[in-house]
Structures are given as structure tokens and as C-alpha cells.
Amino acid sequence: MNVFWTCDLAWWKLLATALALAGVLAMSWRHVRRERATLRRGALAVEILRILGVAALLVTLLKLERIRILPRTLQPEVLVLCDASASMTTRDVVSAGDTGAVSRAGWLAAQRARNFAAPLAQRYTVRVEEICAPPTNDVADAGTDLNAVLDRVAQEGGAVRAVLLLSDGDWNAGVSPVTAATRLRLKQIPVFGVTAGSDQFLPDLELQAVSAQAYGLMEEQITLPFTIQSHLTREVNTSLALEGPGGVVLSRKPVVLPPMAQTQGSLVLVPRAEGEQTYTVRLPVEPDETRADNNARSFRIALRREVLRVLIIETSPRWEYRYLRNALLRDRGAEVRTLLLHPGMETGGGRNYLSTFPGTREELSKFDVVFIGDVGLGAGGLTEEQARQLKGLVEQQASGLVFLPGPEGRQQSLVNSPLGDLLPVALDAANIHGSGFTMESRLALTARGRDHLLTMLANTPVENDAIWRGLPGFFWHAPVVRAKPGTEVLAVHSNTRNQYGYVPLLVTRNCGNGRTLFMGTDAAWRWRRGVEDTYHYRFWGQVIRWMAHQRHLAHAEGLRFFYTPESPNVGERVFFHATLFDAAGQPLQHGTARVRVRTPGGREESIELNAEAGGWGVFTGAFVPAEGGVHEVDVRCEETGRSVSTKLSVHQPRREQTGRPARPEVLRELADVTLGETGTMAQLDELVKKISVLPERLPEQQIFRLWCHPLWFMLVVALLGLHWVGRKLLGRI
Fold first, then answer.
1. Which of 682, 663, 660, 627 is nearest to 146 (CA)?
2. Which of 168, 398, 409, 427 would bridge with 513, disulfide CB 3.0–4.6 Å?
3. Residue 186 phi, psi dihedral angles, 5° rounding
4. Which of 212, 209, 155 is nearest to 184 (CA)?
5. Percent of the chain with pLDDT over 90
């Protein structure tokens, strides 16, 4: 071990030091001679302190340092890091002569099997480690943190001469690995990288996602949104197959996939059997695809039969009302009640008719969907209190409300009532009776309406749009000015427009926990012309099932429970809503509702729901899932002893993505910072040879910087301080 001192011997520093030291010595000599003439003792000691203090400052200027050379005695080592993350399962490694692609992990395993690092063993100790392996429980997703791996190597240091990193470079956790690479540079440890995988997408079609709701009702048209990514350089005309249990093909949907683009659409599932079923959406494999394992997606959905309770409120029995009522009465999944108000006359009666508006909240809360026809407030219509109860039914009980205005313009009086906030559109107060024309007009679907569940009368948006264009039109429409903010416009007037654009006539809106729909014409019954109930029944059947979906997520006698969003992600807040009734059937005003959530990992969490104001017996709470998978949810009311169970499916966003190109630029940057090199998979052996002939690493140096040490600073201050004190004392003698 060698030890020596060094300093900065720049000529200008040496000159400045010499001049400063000479000046101080001259000044001190002059002061000492003057003080001796006056017989003052201690003058020499004071001047010595001055000289030492200035000398210490000059040493600081020269940056005096002690260097210790530590010879390396350990056998040099090469650390081989093999990426074992989930992204390494991507099949994009194509070798010459092979017809198919193998995974990056498969290629890496083949290299380890042939002992590619054998040439390094002649000179180094070779240590092979797997890094960033996925967790075994498949619940959490740790991701790939290259910075943590390289930082650990930098901290160990020791005998590591070089790092050989075999990875796809896809880091997705922690900070940039360049941070750790900087530390490796200071340790003289270069990184040699080999990029596993292709940096370009290989020819492939990928069915990226298929979304399904938590449950479905029999006779319901269930929409399944899908996303397809094409990595082919040609347009593909194919069909997407929906397979049921046992692989039976239920339906096919033609799709046109543009080259190198993403395509989104939706399939329609019509349940055929009750219970929890597994379905598969499959995309045919093209001849020039390199992968065939990403062309299908499976999902499970619970299918059950529910009877939806519908209330229709109308004044005069116009054609729209008659055909709507008949359509819903013939729907096996609906139980219809009608309140026919005749202004100036007695309330209409008959089979399934109500003589009065439901008198209690408990009676009203049984209805899943309410239709309001050409009805207003005042004599022969609704009261202010009834309007307030309907608003609470939608916002608190998650029911649906459909506005069906008529030529009498009675719904104009609802604008300034509690129901005014639920209207999806703004009405023209100067034209309460609407607009009638002698020429037939039609509903024109918007981009959103072409594939919306409510307006989907065919299997594809193109076919659906063609059907709507061919439906019989209307001669009257409501006095709509514009759609309100936060609404969805599904269809507009085909001809009439104002300063806001084409007049919106089919508009939806989320209101609290429920939904509302505005239908601005009274001629849907004309859709039966030539086709009978084909489109008329399907449309209204879809309306009541879409609007009542949340209310039937989980329910039992005296207890109804739902949550939003229906398919949350990990870390996303889930809002619980429970409606409780006492033994007499009245909404529970004071009580205790508790939700117990059991996670896939076995952990249990209890959430107490708080009563909401309004008197509807609604209790709410929130839950933030910390892991993905199916959660078991049990809801119980302590006072009534009633309970209900359901399942909450939580999506776990994956940091590790398969099918994505490798990132050679990451390894290239690490190599540049650490003075290493990178190469392709074919250059692995070449990089191994370069590592085997690396020069010996310079001996390790331990540097003690005296000039910036805190104790040195304290010494300088102490010397100058003692000199100043000595001068003051000397002046008093």
C-alpha cells in the first residue's frame, strides 16, 4: 500500500502563495520589532498565530490531499444479469431458417444451455443471476426496476470487473437506470448489453382487450367492446367469432383491420342459458402472423333472469303510449304498471293500471324504470312532491327515467320543477307545443349512437346506421334548443338545425346513481311498419334493461346493493350504495350497514356505510382495492339481519406488457455512460470476447482531501480567532 501527498501546483497558485507568505512574514517581523521596543510580552506568539493562520489558508488554496493506493487482491469477476421479467415471454425472436418465433426468455435459456459465458471463466469468476422475476402469487406486479439492480451492483463493487446485461431493456419501475450507471462509471465497472427481442413489431394481429360487465340479464343484448391491434402491412378482412361454453360459435362479426392501426368495436351477446358462463372472443390467425397465442380472449359473466318493474305515466292515450305499453307488456322480463292521468277527467283504469300515483317511497322505489309522457305539473298532472319523489328515485335508488314529450307541451312545466335538473335537454319556452311538418323527417345517429347499446338494432355500426336511415320517420318533434352539458347525444333531427347545430332528439344523462333518457319524437311506434315488432320491441327492451342495470347488481328482500365503477382498477375508489328497508317495508332511516370485502389474497376489510340524507334508506361508503382479482363482497344490515353477497372484479393493470418491441436504446445509454458496449443477439459471443480482454482495472485509491475537511476549516478559524484575541489583549497591556 502506497501513501503520498499531492497538491495543486499551478504556477499562478505557487506565485500567489509565495507573495502572500512573504508579505505576512514581513508584516509580522515589523510588528515584532515594534512591540519589543515597547517591552510588550507575547507579541511574538501573536504573530506566530497570524503566520500559521495565513499558512493554513494558503494550504487550502493549494488543495493538499493524501492518496492511498490499495492494490486489488480479489479475483476479478464478471456479473451476468439475465432478465426474467414477464415482458421476456414476448415471442419475437426469429432465427434464420426457423418458421416461427420463440420467446425472448426461450432464446436466453438456449444461450445459457450452451454456456455462452465459458470463455470468461479462463480469466474471471463468472456469476450468473436472474433479475426482475415476476412475483409468484400473480397478484402484485413489481415490474422491472433496472436501476435497483445496477445500484446494488455499484454498492457491492468489490471484484466486479464488468456487467453483462441480457435484457429487452423494458424498465417500468423505479427511476431511470442511468442514475445507477453513473455510480458504476465511478467504480470503473462497464456495462455490456445485449438486447433480447426485436425492436420492431413483428407481423401480427393482437386481440388486445374484450370488456364484459359484471352480470347480464336474460333477453338482454349485452355489448362487448373489443380492441384489435394490427401489425401487418396490409389490410385484413376477417371476422371475429364469439364462442360460448364448449366452443360453440354463437355469432360472427365481420371486421376490416387497417394496416398498422388499432381497431375498436363491439360484439353483441344474447344470453341463452342462466348461470355463470365462460365465453371466448376469437380472431382467426392470418398466414403471415408470427404469433398465434394472442388472437383470443376469454371472460366470465353471470347470467340471470330478472323481472324489471316499469311504471308508465301518461295523460291522453296517444299512439306512442299504446304501442309502448303493449311492447313492454309482451316482454317476459318486464312487469308493467300504468298511471293514465286525464286532465279534467277521472284517472284511467283497467288491467295493470294504477288508480293513483304510488303513495309511499317504498311503493315507488320498487320501480326500475319510469316513463313520463305528455305529463306536467298542476291539475291533472303531477304534484311538486311527486316530482321530488321521482327525482329521489333516480338519484338515490339508481332507477331510470324516460321523458316522452307530446304535442300538448305539458312537459314544459317540468323545467322549473325538481325534475328540471334531470332533463337532458333545454326546451324552448316560447314554443311549448313543438314543431310539426308535412314532410317526413328521420332520426340521424351520431358517432356515439351508431354503436351505443340503446340504439344498436344490428350487429355492426354500419348495418345499424343503415337500419336507422331506413326506419319510418316522424312529422313532429319536441321544442328542443340544445343538449345540456354532460349528456350523450345519440340521435339528432335529420334536417332541422339551429344556432347550436342539428336539434338533438335522443339524449341520455347520468343523474346521481341513475340515468335519464329524452326521446324528442312521438313516432317510434311507426317503426313497426312492414317489420312488425322487430325494431320497436328491441329498442324499448334495450332501454329498460340499460337503465335498470345497476339496480340488479345484487339484491335480496329488503336490501339492494350496487357499486360504481362496475369494473374498477387497482387503486381506484369504488363507491358502495346500499338501500335498506325495515320489516314494514319502509326505507330504513337509522341503522348500521356493513360491507365485508374478502380479497383474492385472503385479507378481509370491513367498511361501515353511512346513511345519506333524503329519507330513501340509502347508505354509502367507499373502498380502494389494493390487489387485482375477484373480491367477495358481503353486505349485512345489523338491525334487520338481512344480507346479500356479490363479487367485485378488480382489474390489475400490468406494468409488464408482452408483445411490445424491445428497447435497445436503454441498454445503449447504459453502455455509453459506463464506457461499455452493446450488441444484438447475434453479437453476444463477440461481446463476450471483448469482456475477456479488458485491461486490468486501475488500483483503488482512497483520497483524503485535507483542504476541504471540516476539522481543517475549524483549525483555520481557530488560528485566526486566537490571533485576533491576542491582538486585543496585547493592546490593553
1. 663
2. 398
3. -65, -25
4. 155
5. 38
CA–CA gap between residue 244 and residue 380 (Å, rounded): 52
Q: Alpha-carbon distance 390 to 367, whole Å?
A: 10
- Among 393-402, 450-459, 463-472, 485-494, whose mean pLDDT is lowest? 450-459
Domains of the chain (ranges, CATH numbers): 2-71+702-732 (no CATH), 77-197+662-698 (3.40.50.410), 205-304 (2.60.40.10), 308-550 (3.40.50.880), 553-650 (2.60.40.1930)
* Long-range contacts at 383-391 (CB < 8 A, ≥ 24 apart): 383/357, 384/417, 384/418, 386/357, 387/414, 387/417, 387/418, 387/419, 388/418, 389/361, 389/364, 390/364, 390/418, 390/419, 391/418, 391/419, 391/421, 391/422
Dist CA 569 CA 205 (whole Å) = 26
Which phi-psi region, left, alpha or beta, contains residue 629 (left: φ > 0; alpha: ψ -120 to 50)? left
Nearest to 670 by CA among 157, 174, 79, 182: 182
251: how many CB neighbours lie within 10 A of its CB?
15
CB under 8 Å to 638, separation ≥6 — which residues? 591, 592, 593, 594
C-alpha grid cell for residue 604? 378481509
Alpha carbons 516 and 510: distance in angstroms, whole number: 6
Hey, is 8 helix, strand or coil? coil
Q: What is the largest CA-CA distance in the chain?
A: 134
Separation between Cα atoms, residue 338 and residue 353, nearest integer Å: 5
Q: In what order do the strands lie in the sheet with 262-269?
A: 205-210, 222-230, 262-269
Select from 278, 269, 107, 68 the least CA-distant residue to 198.
107
Average pLDDT over residues 311-337: 91
